[in-house]
């Protein structure tokens, strides 16, 4: 182990990502197969109106994606929302925003581990779900150890193959519709049916759909790894990700929604496997399960591990969390301590919730939605009173975005709200305890937050 100066290669993240890498990374994070794996959850909670849920979610998150694009251009950093809030509203706001988004970043990989385990359980039921979770975690951590360029390559290949899988499954579902299954045609029933529509149910389903759109948030964490420091690429990739995912999700859910009408659902997590078995038999389901594991289950977790590690890295670099999290692997240029720590936490959550996947799906959104509010507030704080501000991007869009997020949060389940509030309280206690023991001094907004180009304290590298 050696002590490296901030200017040495091993102390900073490597800048080697292109616009294409960013777009595919975001798509890999959300996963094109998401409307297949999430179909049961969204269908049940929305009361049979999954298309409306995804459309409403996309509309609400457009304003958030716009604010992300604005802030990543102004303040590019691996810390994303943590960095934005720190620089515009001070260290406490920065810490709380980073703390809350971490809840999402730790739960999403755990949820994906368990979904991958469900697929493997379809193939080899003699092996318990918890064992499969451990295996998936081990494989993904090994791949991510070799740096973000390897992750980007694997993610790009995975996205292409996932799109092919989605096309095949949609083809099978259309064949089933033609044969009289479900609504026996592509109707508008999954979009709107007055007899099924309830505001509270729709907003609750929208909150679950948020998990499928988090790719743009993950892209923002890679701001320090873009080639030639061209931060405009981050904003373009964020908006591209939202446009592509929303179009894909609505189209696929429209088809699935028409097939699911009248279909018995015993477990929301296995709906897509139950559908393919009913349409093509166990052989088709087995083939899809293998594909889901090899091309989706493992690659989909890769960008999730990358995202949470970058936020922990930024918070460790600023010492709002233990500075050991800012250690960077000299050879591969990744924050390896942050990655190991976050993976261990997500693994523990996955093992604890392995038989309660529906509850885990509901819990995910609180952290992300809380972080989104801080992104909007950062835009207002940074640009609100500046000459030449844009009335739309710097004022109207973030205000509408805050309203949309509050509306969704207000309809989360009591369990999700309780967990989210407890997590927030724990963060506040940690912050106060740290200030008490360290005698911390307030830092003005202009001096706080991650700054990848500013002078940094020496960091220990591997």
Describe what this molecule looks like in 3D.
The protein has 462 residues and is mostly helical. It has a single domain (2-451), classed as Amino acid/polyamine transporter I (Up-down Bundle). The chain has helices spanning 19-30, 34-37, 39-46, 50-74, 81-89, 91-123, 129-144, 148-178, 199-209, 215-220, 232-260, 271-280, 282-317, 336-352, 357-363, 365-383, 391-409, 414-438; strands spanning 2-4, 459-461. It has a two-stranded antiparallel sheet with strand order 1-2. Helix 3 packs antiparallel against helix 9 (199-209). The longest helix is centred in the middle third of the chain and has 36 residues, at 282-317. It is globular and about 65 Å long.
In short:
The protein has 18 helices and two strands.
From the 3D structure, determine the CATH topology: Amino acid/polyamine transporter I
Number of strands: 2
**Which of globular, elongated, flat, extended, rod-shaped describes the shape?**
globular
**Largest sheet geometry:** 2 strands, antiparallel
Class per helix and strand makeup: mainly alpha
Distance between the termini: 6 Å
Quote the average pLDDT.
81
What does the radius of gyration come to? Answer: 22 Å
Specify the number of helices: 18
- Strand composition percent: under 5%
Report the uncertain regions: 1-11, 440-462
- What's the architecture, going by CATH? Up-down Bundle
Order of helices and strands: EHHHHHHHHHHHHHHHHHHE
Strand order of the largest sheet: 1-2
Q: Look at the structure and give the CATH class.
A: Mainly Alpha
Going by CATH, the homologous superfamily would be Amino acid/polyamine transporter I
Structural domain tally: 1
Helix fraction bin? 55-70%
């Amino acid at each position: 182990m050696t002590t490296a100066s901030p200017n040495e290669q091993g102390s900073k993240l490597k800048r080697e990502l292109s616009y294409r890498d960013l777009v595919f990374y975001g798509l890999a994070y959300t996963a094109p197969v998401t409307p297949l794996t999430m179909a049961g959850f969204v269908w049940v909670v929305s009361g049979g109106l999954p298309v409306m849920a995804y459309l409403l979610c996309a509309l609400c998150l457009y304003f958030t994606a716009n604010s992300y694009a604005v802030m990543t251009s102004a303040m590019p950093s691996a810390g994303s929302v943590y960095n934005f809030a720190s620089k515009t509203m001070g260290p406490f706001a920065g810490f709380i925003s980073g703390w809350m988004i971490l809840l999402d970043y730790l739960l999403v990989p755990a949820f994906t581990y368990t979904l991958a385990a469900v697929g493997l359980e379809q193939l080899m039921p003699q092996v318990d779900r918890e064992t499969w979770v451990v295996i998936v975690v081990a494989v993904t951590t090994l791949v991510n150890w070799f740096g973000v360029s390897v992750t980007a390559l694997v993610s790009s290949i995975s996205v292409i193959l996932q799109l092919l899988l989605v096309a095949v499954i949609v083809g099978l579902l259309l064949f089933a519709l033609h044969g009289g299954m479900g609504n026996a045609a592509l109707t508008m029933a999954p979009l709107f049916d007055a007899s099924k529509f309830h505001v509270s149910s729709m907003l609750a389903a929208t909150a679950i759909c948020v998990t499928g759109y988090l790719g743009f948030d993950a892209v923002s964490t890679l701001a320090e790894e873009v080639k030639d420091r061209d931060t405009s690429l981050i904003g373009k990739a964020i908006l591209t990700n939202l446009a592509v995912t929303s179009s894909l999700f609505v189209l696929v859910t429209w088809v699935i929604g028409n097939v699911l009408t009248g279909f018995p659902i015993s477990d929301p997590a296995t709906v897509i496997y139950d559908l393919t078995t009913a349409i093509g038999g166990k052989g088709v389901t087995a083939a899809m399960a293998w594909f889901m594991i090899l091309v989706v289950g493992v690659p989909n977790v890769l960008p999730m591990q990358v995202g949470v590690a970058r936020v922990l890295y930024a918070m460790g670099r600023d010492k709002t969390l233990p500075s050991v999290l800012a250690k960077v692997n000299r050879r591969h240029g990744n924050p390896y301590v942050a990655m190991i720590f976050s993976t261990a936490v997500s693994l523990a959550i996955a093992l604890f919730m392995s038989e309660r996947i529906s509850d885990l799906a509901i819990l995910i959104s609180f952290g992300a939605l809380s972080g989104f509010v801080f992104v909007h507030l950062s835009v207002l704080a940074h640009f609100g009173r500046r000459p030449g501000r844009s009335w739309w991007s710097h004022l109207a869009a973030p205000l509408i975005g805050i309203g949309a997020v509050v509306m969704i949060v207000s309809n989360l389940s009591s369990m999700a709200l309780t967990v989210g509030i407890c997590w927030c309280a724990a963060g506040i206690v940690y912050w106060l305890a740290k200030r008490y023991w360290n005698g911390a001094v307030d830092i003005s907004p202009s001096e706080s937050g991650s700054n990848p180009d500013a002078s940094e304290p020496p960091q220990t590298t591997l």
